[in-house]
Write a structure and sequence with these properties.
172 residues; mainly alpha; globular
């Protein structure tokens, strides 16, 4: 298991080094920092659920999205993260924009899992690819802003896809 975790750490380091070329570019910094910040506490996804509920004249859309996100958050930020207790990436320098620094375990990324749950539910009514595209921006923003390792994001995406599929089935 130690060798596996060391391999994951090496892969994360390589991806982070590769991603460095995108950091410091004003447009990308603004996009990723904004995506990361607006998705804090799933506020972005709750807002999209309300907007979709208004457009579709169906308040249960917002209730379903918010309910599923509440369950996702409780699971990911509670028992799942407590199983791993992984340290977040080290970052010594200033960030180009302010950003809340979470205190929970780094693995898995809650932003990534919430993005996939929200995309699964919001895509039931309109443009699935677009919702997953926004979700991918939010998920990868966590690598860009150095709050998660790439493997944290991949783990969050996997958890979110599973929880999103379950939520779709329950809310069908």
């Amino acid at each position: 298991m130690t060798e596996f975790l060391a391999g994951v750490d090496r892969l994360d380091e390589r991806i982070d080094a590769w991603w460095e070329r995108f950091r410091g570019q004003p447009v990308l910094d603004r996009l990723y920092y904004t995506a990361s910040e607006t998705a804090d506490f799933s506020l972005l996804w709750h807002a999209f659920g309300v907007i979709q509920a208004i457009i579709e004249d169906d308040p249960m859309i917002a209730v379903g999205v918010s309910g599923a996100l509440g369950i996702e958050s409780a699971l990911v930020n509670g028992p799942i993260k407590s199983l791993f207790k992984r340290r977040r990436p080290a970052h010594d320098g200033p960030r180009p924009h302010t950003l809340r620094q979470p205190r929970t375990s780094s693995f898995p990324s809650g932003h990534a899992s919430a993005a996939m749950v929200a995309a699964a539910l919001l895509s039931r009514h309109t443009g699935g690819a677009a919702w997953y595209g926004v979700g991918a921006i939010v998920a990868t923003s966590r690598i860009h802003v150095r709050i998660h390792h790439a493997s944290d994001v991949a783990g969050g995406i996997a958890v979110g896809v599973l929880l999103g599929a379950l939520a779709r089935r329950v809310l069908a």
